[in-house]
Each structure stands twice: as C-alpha cells, then as structure tokens.
Design the sequence.
C-alpha cells in the first residue's frame, strides 16, 4: 500500500466513523424506566388494574411517537396489595433494578412509606391517586410529587356543596387507613365551617367483610346525611349492605372515591342518586381530554377512561414532558424539571407548585345519574384550580 | 339488640365456612389453606350459574361443583400425600390457593363483581323496632340448617358413626371393614361443598374478587382453632362467640375490634389448650 492510498484509507475510515457515531450514540440512549408498585391483588386490585392500564396506554403512546426524548419507555409493575410495608419493599426492588422513576401506587399509606426512601434509592415518585394531605404536607419530599387532588382539595369542593344542603346532622363512614382518616377529618372540618354537625364517626377496618354494625350506628345516630370515604372492594361491599338496610333511602349520601366510574359500573342502580366528588371525568370538555378519550377508545374499544386512569395519565404526561425537558432519565434531573414546571395535561396547562410539589388543578362535584345512555358520575359543579388547590399550610419544608 | 342479631349473622356465615375446614381436618388431618380459595371459587361459580339460571340453581350448581372438586382433591392430592409430613400437604394447599386465584382471575377478570339478593329475600322486616334485611335472616337460617343437618348425620346415621370413628382412629376403623378412603373422599366433598355454599351466600353480602378468600379465612382458622380443631359443636359455639364479639367490638371498641377474635383465641387456648370442645388428642 503506497502513501497516498494509506491517507485515503485513513480519511475514509474517519468519515465512516464520524457518520456512524451519532447513530451509535442514539441507539445507546438510556431508556426511560418507569416503575409501578401498585395493588395488583387485594382490596384495591381493581384500582391497581385501572392505574396499570393508564400507564401502559401512556407508555405505548409515547413509544409509538418515538419515545420520550428519543428514548424507549419501559415499564415494570410489581404487586403491593396496597400494603405500605410491601409497597416499600417492592418500590426498593424496582429502584434497584433501574425502574427508579415511579408512579401509580394506590393507597396513601404506601406513598408515605415510599417517600422518605426516595433519596436513598436515588429514585423519584409521582403520586396520581393518593389523597392524604401529608404527602405534600408535613411528609413532603423533594422527589415526591402529586398530580391528583388531595383531601384538602376535596374539602374545598365539599364545603360549597354542603352549604347548599338542608341536612344538619351528618355521619362519616371512612376506611381506617391514612386516606380514610384524612378524608373524615376534612369532611368534619367542612361540616363545622358550614354550620353542620357530625353525629357519628365510623372507621371500619380496611378490607372489612361486614359493615352492618357501622350502618346500624349511622341509622341510630339521627344523621340526615352520611359521608362515605371507602374505595375498591370496601366501597362495593358497603354499598351492597347499606342498600339492604335501606340506608341510601333514609339519609342523603355523598362520598369520595366511593361512587367512581368503576364502582358505579359494578353496582348499577344501587348507587343511583349518590353525591360524589369527581376528580376526573371522561366527559370533561377540553380539547386535550377529548383527544385522550378518543385515543383511549381506539386502544380499548368501547371504553372510556375512568377517574383513576385520567389522573394516572396526567402523571405520565408530566413525567414524559419532564424527561424531554431535562434531556435525562436521572431521577434528580427529572425531579428538578418537574418542580415548579408548567405542563400541558388533559386538563389544560397546569403548574407543579414548587413550595410543596402539588399540581395545581381544578376539582369537581357531581351526582350518579343517567347520562349518555349509562349510569355514571356526572359533574354538576366545577371549582376552578386556584380555589380547588388550597395554598400550602406551611407544614411542608422542602 | 339489633346489633346482637348482626353479630349472629356474621357468626353464622363464619360457621358455614369454618365447619368445612373442621370436617376436612377431622378426617384427613389436613390444614387446608386452600379453603378460602374454594369459598372464592364457590362464589364465582354460583354467580356465573345464577346469571343464567337464578340464585337458587346457582347455589345448587356451586355446591355440586365444589363437592365434585373435593372428591378429586381427596383422590389426587390428599390421599397420595397422606403418608407425607403434614407440612407437605399444607404447602400444597397453600400453592393450590394461588392456582385457584389465578384461574378465577383468568376466567372472570380482576374487576369486582356484586351480586344482588334473590327477589324472595331482597326485602326487609321490622325486627326490634328496626328495619332488618331478610337476606341476613336467611344466612342465620342456612347456618342453623347446616348445624342441625350435620348433627343429625353424624349422630343418627351409620355413615356418621363411621366418620366419628374414623376421625378418632382411622386405622382401627379401617380394620373393622370401613372403606376409610371412600369415607374421606365423601367427607372432603361435603367440606368443599360447604365452601361452595358459603361462597354462594357471600355473594349478596360482599364484593366478589379473586382474593376474597383471604379476607375471611383468617377468621375461619381462628374459629376452628378456638373451637377445638375437630369439634363441630366447638366450631359452632366459637363462630357465634367470635361473630358476636367482633360485631360488638366494632360498635363499642372500634379501635381494637380487628384484634378481638385473636384475643378470644389466645384467651381460650390459654385456659383450655385443646380449645372450647376439643379432646386434646
């Protein structure tokens, strides 16, 4: 090989390498790994399944559009049975396996168990269903965010509704877990603020089989209304038994997470006429939501996204936008991009409040009634974002 | 007073489920962890049959299907494993529970199912000045019929005599010419059939889900252990006592209500290690 040929070959090799390198770098771009520690079995299994489908939908949609920031999106689900200690173990497993951007856990107690560990695991978490005030209150964390409506937001919706009600005496039936207790306290505060009294407070154990004792207590208390904060299997079991005792006919009933799209589908006429907080509805009239609902119907023919699916999809939208904005899948970078950020979601443009990592959003109140040929929670009152997301009470120190 | 009737309902329900465990333990000495799974399968089979054939036919189909399953279980699981250490059978039944849950999840999905009470039992009656669901009275009635039926069968029939003899000394009973394997298959079938019956009556009371057995089986084991493992009378008394204290606990001591059944078990075993009506053998 003479000198000029050697030079030509060197130039050719260099050009080839230069051409190949960007492609090689692109192929090697680290994937976005989403970890989902959620209730795949147990009392909240149907809720976990709803959240799972929303995450899968968002992941498939992102990958079909070329990924997040050009990165393939991967997801892994592990069962927590909605038990805080198991949730902590499963989340740690996910984080250690690299699925360290986590979301879609069901019970508040699980998130409160995971939150303090996020820094140690080099992970971050976006709560999409969990309502306990402490998540963005006194137990807030720099890498823990919430996109759904907390209990104090629900209370902000309940209060104007309670003002319109003539019933003066109320009873509470709420699950004996962090969320249920929180919700009960919030309702009590709202009742106090509107001149109503709470005459019976009942916190049945999570996963109860028999609510007869509590139903009887409510009936004997002289309450004219009952506020129910039970979800999943608990909600269905309670509603069926309450109907048998004639509770819904005797007192006005309202609740949160009690008569969701999912439970209404299972219970049908049993829960017709029950008042309910609606955190998300497929019927919300925003262009982005209409597109989401239409795309969902293509992915799951004949179905509309239900409340926990809408809320979980918002969480996924924010994670995906933050990854693109930060150009990274490192939890610290993504968390930095989420904190104080503005995001386009199915509910419009929303801001993640920097002070406590709570997404500022609207909240709704409605009634279970026939609409569009089927029984479902129908929105009757909308509370705008600035009123529906109470200002931080100062307990969160980030 | 009405709260006592409520406690009676829960106790009755526990009894119908727990007595199946007592039967199987009595003959096969098997701690059947899959019993909650049979209860769950019974609820789903009954629901599926009831959709087309009505509640009552659903009940018959569920009891018959679970009884048949019991015969197969005894023939292909309990009998081959009878010479093994008890822990082997226990682990197999534990595994069977997961298989059943996955099977039901595959067939009926993960969504919860709610079953309405049959029309004849859908109303309510006035009881001690309060409206009380007829269906709940029906649950008490089922428990009474099961208890009386089992007592009559065990005390007044030849097969009942064999069952009692075999539960005390299966070897000697076999030497007297009793086909103990056939007898065991029959008894296991009744035990699983009762799980089917309790699954059916659970339908209008609680949400159906693949993991529903797990919510009730712990209370059942507490009933069986407190009652004395092999005693039908003990299980009956224990179920009623635990149902009553569980319910009254929810009314008067809600903070500790969930541990009351466990406390009763500890108290009874502390005073009578053989249980309320156990023989200690």
Sequence:
């Amino acid at each position: 090989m003479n000198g000029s040929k050697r030079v030509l070959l060197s130039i050719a090799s260099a050009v080839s390498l230069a051409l190949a390198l960007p492609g090689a770098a692109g192929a090697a771009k680290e994937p976005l790994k989403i970890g989902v520690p959620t209730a795949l079995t147990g009392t909240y299994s149907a809720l976990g399944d709803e959240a799972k489908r929303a995450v899968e939908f968002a992941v498939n949609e992102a990958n079909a559009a070329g990924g997040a920031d050009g990165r393939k999106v991967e997801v892994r689900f592990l069962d927590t049975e909605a038990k805080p200690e198991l949730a902590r173990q499963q989340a740690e497993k996910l984080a250690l396996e690299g699925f360290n951007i986590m979301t879609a856990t069901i019970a508040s107690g699980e998130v409160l168990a995971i939150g303090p560990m996020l820094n140690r695991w080099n992970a971050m978490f976006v709560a999409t269903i969990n309502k306990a005030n402490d998540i963005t209150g006194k137990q807030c964390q720099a890498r823990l965010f919430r996109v759904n409506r907390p209990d104090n937001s629900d209370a902000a919706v309940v209060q104007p509704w309670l003002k319109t009600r003539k019933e003066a005496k109320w009873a509470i039936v709420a699950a004996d877990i962090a969320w249920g207790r929180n919700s009960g306290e919030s309702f009590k505060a709202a009742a106090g603020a509107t001149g109503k009294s709470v005459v019976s407070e009942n916190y049945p154990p999570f996963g109860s089989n028999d609510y007869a004792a509590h139903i009887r207590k409510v009936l004997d208390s002289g309450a004219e209304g009952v506020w129910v904060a039970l979800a999943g299997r608990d909600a269905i079991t309670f509603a069926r038994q309450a109907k048998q005792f004639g509770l819904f006919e005797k007192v006005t009933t309202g609740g949160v997470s009690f008569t969701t799209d999912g439970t209404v589908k299972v219970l049908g006429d049993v829960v017709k006429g029950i008042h309910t907080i609606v955190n998300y509805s497929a019927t919300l009239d925003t262009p982005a939501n209409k597109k989401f609902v239409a795309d969902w119907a293509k992915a799951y023919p004949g179905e509309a996204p239900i409340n926990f699916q809408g809320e979980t999809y918002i969480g996924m939208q924010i994670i995906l936008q933050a990854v693109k904005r930060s150009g990274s899948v490192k939890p610290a970078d993504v968390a930095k991009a989420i904190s104080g950020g503005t995001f386009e979601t199915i509910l419009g443009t929303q801001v993640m409040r920097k002070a406590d990592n709570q997404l500022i959003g609207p909240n709704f109140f409605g009634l279970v009634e026939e609409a569009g040929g089927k029984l479902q929670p129908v929105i009757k009152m909308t509370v705008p974002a600035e009123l529906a997301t109470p200002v931080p009470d100062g307990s969160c120190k980030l | 007073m009405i709260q006592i009737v409520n406690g009676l309902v829960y106790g009755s329900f526990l009894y119908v489920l727990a007595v199946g465990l007592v039967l199987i333990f009595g003959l096969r000495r098997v701690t059947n962890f899959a019993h909650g799974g049979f209860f769950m399968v019974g609820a789903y089979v009954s629901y599926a049959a009831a959709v087309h054939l009505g509640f009552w036919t659903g009940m018959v189909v569920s009891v018959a299907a679970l009884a048949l399953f019991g015969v197969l279980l005894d023939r292909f699981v309990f009998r081959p494993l009878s010479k093994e250490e008890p822990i082997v059978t226990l682990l197999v039944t534990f595994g069977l529970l997961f298989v059943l849950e996955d099977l039901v999840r595959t067939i009926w999905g993960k969504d919860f199912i709610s079953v309405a009470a049959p029309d004849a039992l859908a109303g309510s009656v006035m009881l001690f000045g309060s409206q009380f669901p007829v269906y709940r009275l029906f649950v008490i009635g089922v428990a009474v019929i099961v208890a009386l039926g089992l007592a009559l069968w065990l005390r007044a029939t030849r097969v009942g005599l064999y069952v009692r003899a075999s539960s005390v000394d299966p070897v000697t009973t076999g030497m007297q010419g009793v086909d103990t394997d056939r007898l065991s298959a029959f008894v296991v079938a009744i035990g699983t059939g009762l799980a089917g019956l309790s699954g059916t009556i659970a339908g209008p009371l609680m949400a159906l889900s693949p993991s529903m057995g797990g919510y009730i089986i712990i209370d059942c084991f507490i009933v069986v252990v407190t009652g004395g493992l092999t005693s039908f009378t003990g299980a009956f008394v224990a179920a009623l006592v635990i149902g009553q204290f569980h319910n009254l606990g929810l009314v008067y001591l809600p903070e500790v209500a969930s541990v009351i059944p466990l406390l009763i078990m500890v108290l009874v075993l502390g005073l009578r290690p053989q249980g309320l009506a156990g023989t200690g053998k």
